Amino acid sequence: MTLSPTLRSRFRGCLVGAVVGDCIGAPFEVTGVGGPGSYDIVQDFVNKFDVEIDGPGSEKLEYTDDTAMARCVAESLIANNGQLEAKDLAKRFADEYMAHPRRGYGYNVITVLKRLGDRDLSDVFAPARSQFDGGGSYGNGGAMRVAPVALCGEDEVERVIQNAKSSALLTHSNRNGYNGAVLQALAVHQALHTSTDKMNSEKFAENLLNTMREKVECQTSDEGTANDNKKEAKLTTLMSQVKKRKVERDDVYCQRLESLCHFLKSDPPAEEVASVLGNSISAHNSVGSAVYSFLRCLNPVEGLHVQSPMERTILYAISLDGDTDTIASMAGAIAGAFHGIESIPEQWQKLCEGSDTALKQADRLYEIITKSKTER
Ligand code: F2R
Ligand code: MG
Ligand code: MG
C-alpha cells in the first residue's frame, strides 16, 4: 500500500506542479513538438537538465503568463485570508501585467488587463464583458491560473465552483472560458482530496462529469423560468435535435468528459487525444486534455520511458503539442495535488523560475486553510 502524501505536500505539489509544467512546456508553445505523441523530443529536452544544472551559467527556464497570473490569484487569496475578492484580484492582475508585460499573454486579454488598471473603473467585470463584440473570451487564461482557488475550497464543491467562476470572469466572460476554469478547479480539488489507495481513474472522471452536468453546464439561459414539466419537454426536444445533429450541444465540457471516460478504456494514440479533447488556446479544447493527461499517466504509457507518474504527466501533456505550457501547467497542478511535492524532481524545481515562490505561497495557503478549519 502506498502512503498518501500529506495535505501540505499536496498544496506544494499543486502550485509547484503548475510552475514546472509552464516552464518546461513554454519553449514548445513557440516551436511545437513535431506533432502529438512526439515523446522523444520532450524526453531529450528534459534529459539535458542533468548537464545544464551543473554546467557553468546554467539559465533557468522562464515562467510565462500562466504562472504570473496564478501567483496573483495566490497572493490575493493570502492577503484576504483565503477569500476571493474580485476587486483586489483585478488590481493585482493589472499591476503584474504593467510591471512585466512580456510574459507571453494572450493577444486579446491585454486590452482587459490595461482597463483593469484604471483607477476609476467601478465594475471590474465590465472590461471582460466587452471582449469579442460582447461574446467574451473563451481562451484558457481563466483555467490556467485557477489552482490556488481550488486549494481554498476546503470540502465545499459549491465554493470551488463559485470562486473559480468569479476569478475567471474578470477576464473571460464567455461560458466556455469561465466553465473551463470551473472544470480545472474541480479536477484540482478532487485530486487534492482523493487518497492514493482509493484512486480509480474512471470513477474520478465520472464524478467530474456528474458535477459538471448537475451543477455547472445544466444552467441554460432560461434557467429557473420554466416549470419542471416544461423543462423536461424542452430537454426531450433538444435531445432529439441533437441526435439529428440539428443543433450543437452547449454542454461542451460534458462532451469532452464523455470522450475522456471512453478514452480511459480504449487508450487511443496521442493524435486522437489531441484531436478530440483538443490542444489549442481555447479552454474547451485544452482543459479536458490536461485532466486526461493526469489520469492516463497514473499508468505507464508506451514510448514514454519514465517511471514517475508525476513526471510522466508533464511530459505527456507537452507531447500533445499545441498550447504546451498551459496544458502542462494545468495537468501539473492536478497531478501535483495528488502526488505531492516529493514527486517533483528537485532538479526541475531548481531549473524552473518561480518554483520557490510557489512553494512559499502553498505553505501560506495551507496555514490559512488549516487554521480556519480548527477555529470552526
Ligand atoms: N498567448 C499565448 N501564446 C501565444 C504566443 C505568445 C508568445 N510566446 C509571445 O511571447 O508573445 N499564450 C498564453 O495565452 C493563453 C491564454 O490566453 P487568454 O488569457 O485566454 O487570452 P485571450 O486573449 O483572452 O484568448 C486567447 C485567444 O483565444 C482566441 N479567442 C478567445 N475567445 C475568442 C472568441 N470569443 N472568439 C474568437 N477567438 C477567441 C483569440 O485568438 C485570443 O487571442 C495561454 O496559452 C497562455 O500561455
Ligand atoms: Mg503561457
Ligand atoms: Mg499557453
Automatic annotation (TrEMBL):
Its protein name is ADP-ribosylhydrolase ARH3
Q: Give the GO terms filed under biological process for this record.
A: DNA repair; peptidyl-serine ADP-deribosylation
Could you tell me one molecular function GO term of this UniProt entry?
metal ion binding
**Entry keywords, A to Z:** Chromosome, Cytoplasm, DNA damage, DNA repair, Hydrolase, Magnesium, Metal-binding, Mitochondrion, Nucleus
What coarse category fits the chief subcellular location reported for this protein?
Answer: nucleus
The record lists Mg(2+) as bound by: 64-66, 323, 325-326
Q: Which SUPFAM superfamilies match?
A: ADP-ribosylglycohydrolase
Q: Which organism is it from?
A: Stichopus japonicus
State the needed cofactors, names only: Mg(2+)
**UniProt-listed Enzyme Commission number(s):** 3.2.1.143
Reaction catalysed?
A: alpha-NAD(+) + H2O = ADP-D-ribose + nicotinamide + H(+)
Family per similarity comment: Belongs to the ADP-ribosylglycohydrolase family.
One cellular component GO annotation, for this chain's record? nucleus
One short Pfam family name for this protein?
A: ADP_ribosyl_GH
Q: Where does the record say this protein resides?
A: Chromosome; Cytoplasm; Mitochondrion matrix; Nucleus
Cofactor binding description: Binds 2 magnesium ions per subunit.
Indicate the quaternary assembly: Monomer.
